[in-house]
């Protein structure tokens, strides 16, 4: 019994390792992903965090912990610490702490309804064809500095840009918008256009 109290927790798996916080956008609602953490030595009152955000446990089976991705979560680490333990900020290590990488993906929860994501890299430009009223999904690579997405299109466009914790900002029926993207993260976004060729430059 003493060993269980003093031994650090061990995470053997996190299922799934990709998920989303609650998305409550103007025309779509997706619930937070349920996550199951398997391992040992979790103790009676373990604390689960997604980065620095404490998550609510719905069930503790001793070797399995059930929780949901809390609001504000972004890609980083999911950690479990025991009573009296602590995890270092933005880290999977600490005192009586164990962690594993976790990725926030705002698009996968939709079952890829707009087809595969198109990647746009910083410093690059791409040309995209739209056939009828169509929406396409995009993502950037991790931006090393703040960049502007410049869209040039033969039709007005509607753009939905997701923050790193999947909160959406909509730019509705815009002509050739220029949209700021933050540094240090990969940004996911949708573009809807009407039978047009659109050029995207980041």
Question: Could you characterize what this model shows?
Answer:
It contains 1 helix and 20 strands. It has one helix at residues 2-6, and strands at 10-15, 18-19, 23-25, 28-30, 34-40, 47-50, 53-55, 57-60, 64-68, 76-87, 94-104, 118-120, 125-129, 133-140, 147-153, 157-162, 168-174, 178-181, 188-194, 197-201. Strand 10 (76-87) and strand 11 (94-104) form a beta hairpin. By secondary structure, the chain is mainly β.
Outline:
By secondary structure, the chain is mainly β. The protein is 2% helix and 55% strand. It is built from one helix and 20 strands.
Number of strands: 20
Largest sheet: 5 strands, mixed
* Oligomer kind: single chain
CATH top-level class of the largest domain: Mainly Beta
Strand percentage: over 45%
Task: Output the helix-strand order.
Answer: HEEEEEEEEEEEEEEEEEEEE
What is the topology?
Layout: H1 2-6, E1 10-15, E2 18-19, E3 23-25, E4 28-30, E5 34-40, E6 47-50, E7 53-55, E8 57-60, E9 64-68, E10 76-87, E11 94-104, E12 118-120, E13 125-129, E14 133-140, E15 147-153, E16 157-162, E17 168-174, E18 178-181, E19 188-194, E20 197-201
Parallel strand pairs: 2-11, 12-14
Antiparallel strand pairs: 1-5, 3-4, 5-9, 6-7, 6-10, 8-9, 10-11, 13-20, 14-19, 15-18, 15-20, 16-17, 16-19
């Amino acid at each position: 019994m003493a060993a269980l109290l003093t031994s650090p927790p061990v995470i053997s798996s996190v299922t799934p390792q990709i998920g989303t916080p609650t998305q409550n956008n103007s025309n779509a609602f997706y619930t937070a992903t349920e996550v199951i953490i398997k391992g040992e030595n979790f103790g009676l009152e373990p604390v689960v965090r997604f980065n620095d955000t404490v998550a609510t446990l719905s069930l503790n089976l001793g070797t399995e912990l059930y929780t949901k991705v809390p609001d504000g979560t972004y890609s980083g680490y999911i950690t479990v610490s025991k009573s009296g333990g602590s995890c270092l900020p933005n880290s999977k290590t600490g005192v009586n702490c164990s962690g594993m990488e976790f990725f926030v993906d705002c698009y996968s929860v939709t079952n890829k309804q707009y087809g595969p994501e198109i990647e746009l890299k910083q410093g690059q430009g791409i040309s995209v064809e739209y056939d009828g009223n169509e929406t396409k999904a995009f993502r950037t690579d991790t931006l090393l500095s703040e960049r502007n997405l410049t869209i040039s299109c033969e039709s007005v466009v509607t753009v939905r840009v997701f923050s790193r914790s999947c909160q959406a900002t909509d730019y509705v029926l815009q002509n050739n918008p220029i949209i700021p993207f933050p540094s240090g993260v990969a940004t996911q976004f949708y573009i809807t256009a009407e039978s047009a060729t659109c050029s995207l430059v980041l």
